[in-house]
């Protein structure tokens, strides 16, 4: 296929296909699910897309007959339009007991995920795909590793340092493959069509949404609050809906892969579920467009400049894990009084890694001063990492590291 950007997730898809009868790739619209699986599709594997209304109708009415007509191995694109197929797939894989029989792609919708949980437990390997990472957009995604705080020098080898202006160009454009394959395509035109399609197809099919104009207002309000703690009352006020409606709609955006909610850290795992999360858009290009930012320069000089830089870092970290088939223990920290906050906390191998995002080329150790307030319990506290706009990695006296954001 032409203009294909190697995706980090490719290796994981093939791995899952050798260990599970079916593989499900989930993600928002236009992030590259279909392209990835088409690129990896082996000789002899069939292909159907349920974006075709006729095929989707056949699959819903007679799922067993549909799978008899379209035999495995088979790639079924947009499977959410016929969730009835999932039970038929279960019957097929239980009968044949072969791995790699079905590849499925779909948007993260409520009804489909409920169906997967009920019909295919232990029979499906699931992978979350987001729009392209910074490395994937640069053509270096084939073997992009998971971000490892203990090996940042080797991790940085696949990145490319750039100026702060160029960094905001990357942030403003985002990671949707179409905007990188066709650089003449204006982001404004792409995102306008994208949101229209999202509202008319995905949102319209969810019974919780009756007013698409209000839903768009809520999306714009959320974009202006990316990187902030989630306050449903504020979103509800802007969209002119009730707080309960705002909560339901935020849940839809999260399930469809548009936003992500980052939970707060506590030494008590139960408490993590009771505090207010932070909201992040998973693609900064979409976020910037919804927020009305018409150019990288406008974005860089706006009130959103700091929070969208933090949103970009969050997205790159999540991609480095998810596209490698892993889920990180990633949180943020804020004390009860709100006087101490750490942007991100990564917990792995019994170590807490505090991480701050600073729009500075020369961050200071003081930028990590609040990390000392993190309750560690039985875990060890690392000196920390500051993601910044410096042009190279360097160490601070405390053992903390300054890491260029453009190398993520």
If you had to describe this structure to a student in words, what would you say it looks like?
The structure is a single chain. The chain is an alpha/beta fold and 408 residues long. Helix 4 crosses helix 5 (85-96), helix 12 (212-223) crosses helix 13 and helix 13 packs across helix 14. It folds into two domains: 9-128, P-loop containing nucleotide triphosphate hydrolases (Rossmann fold, 3-Layer(aba) Sandwich); 134-407, no CATH class. The protein has helices at 9-19, 33-40, 53-61, 63-69, 85-96, 110-119, 134-137, 152-155, 164-173, 177-181, 187-203, 212-223, 232-239, 243-255, 284-290, 296-300, 305-322; strands at 22-26, 46-49, 74-77, 102-106, 124-128, 228-229, 259-262, 278-281, 330-334, 341-348, 351-357, 380-381, 385-388, 394-395, 401-404. It is globular and about 65 Å long. The mean pLDDT is 92. The strands form three sheets. Strands 9, 10, 11, 12, 13, 14 and 15 form a seven-stranded mixed beta sheet that branches. Strands 2-3-4-1-5 form a five-stranded parallel beta sheet, covered by helices on one side. The chain contains 17 helices and 15 strands. Helix 5 links the parallel strand 3 (74-77) and strand 4 (102-106).
Distance between the ends: 27 Å
Overall helicity: 25-40%
What are the segments in which pLDDT stays under 50 over at least 5 consecutive residues? none
Oligomer: single chain
User: Quick one: overall form?
Assistant: globular
> In this structure, how is the largest beta sheet organized?
7 strands, mixed
What structural class is derived from the secondary structure elements?
A: alpha/beta
Number of helices: 17
Radius of gyration: 22 Å
Please report the total strand number as a whole number: 15
Give the overall average pLDDT: 92
- Overall tally of structural domains: 2
Beta-strand level of the residues, as a percent range? 15-25%
């Amino acid at each position: 296929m032409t203009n294909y950007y190697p995706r980090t997730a490719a290796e994981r898809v093939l791995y899952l296909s050798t260990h599970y009868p079916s593989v499900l790739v989930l993600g928002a619209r236009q992030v590259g699910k279909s392209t990835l699986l088409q690129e990896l599709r082996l000789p002899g594997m069939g292909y159907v897309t349920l974006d075709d209304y006729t095929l989707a109708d056949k699959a819903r009415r007679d799922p067993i007959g549909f799978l008899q007509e379209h035999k495995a191995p088979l790639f079924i694109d947009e499977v959410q339009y016929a969730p009835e197929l999932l039970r038929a797939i279960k019957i097929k894989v239980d009968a044949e007991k072969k791995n790699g029989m079905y590849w499925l792609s779909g948007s993260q919708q409520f009804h489909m995920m409920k169906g997967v949980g009920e019909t295919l437990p232990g029979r499906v390997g699931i992978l979350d795909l987001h729009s392209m990472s910074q490395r994937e957009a640069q053509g270096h995604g084939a073997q992009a590793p998971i971000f490892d705080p203990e090996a940042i020098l080797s991790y940085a080898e696949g990145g490319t340092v750039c100026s702060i202006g160029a960094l905001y160009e990357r942030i403003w454009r985002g990671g949707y493959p179409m905007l990188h394959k066709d650089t003449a395509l204006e982001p404004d035109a792409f995102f306008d069509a994208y949101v229209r399609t999202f509202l008319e197809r995905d949102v319209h099919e969810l019974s919780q949404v009756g007013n698409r104009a209000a839903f768009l207002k809520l999306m714009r309000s959320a974009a202006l609050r990316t990187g902030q703690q989630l306050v449903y009352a504020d979103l509800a006020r802007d969209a002119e809906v009730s707080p309960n409606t705002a909560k339901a709609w935020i849940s839809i955006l999260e399930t469809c892969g548009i936003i992500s909610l980052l939970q707060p850290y506590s030494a008590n795992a139960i408490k993590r579920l009771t505090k207010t999360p932070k909201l992040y858009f998973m693609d900064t290009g979409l976020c910037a467009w919804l927020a009305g930012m018409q150019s990288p320069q406008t974005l860089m000089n706006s009130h959103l400049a700091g929070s969208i830089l933090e949103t970009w870092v969050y997205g790159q970290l999540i991609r480095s894990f998810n596209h490698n088939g892993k889920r990180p223990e990633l949180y943020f920290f804020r004390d009860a009084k709100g006087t101490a906050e750490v942007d991100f906390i990564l917990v792995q191998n019994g170590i807490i890694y505090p991480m701050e995002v600073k729009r500075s080329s020369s961050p200071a150790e003081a930028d990590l001063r609040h990390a000392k307030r993190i309750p560690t319990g039985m875990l060890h506290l690392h000196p920390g990492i500051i993601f910044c706009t410096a042009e190279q990695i360097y160490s601070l006296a405390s053992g903390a590291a300054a890491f260029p954001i453009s190398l993520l």
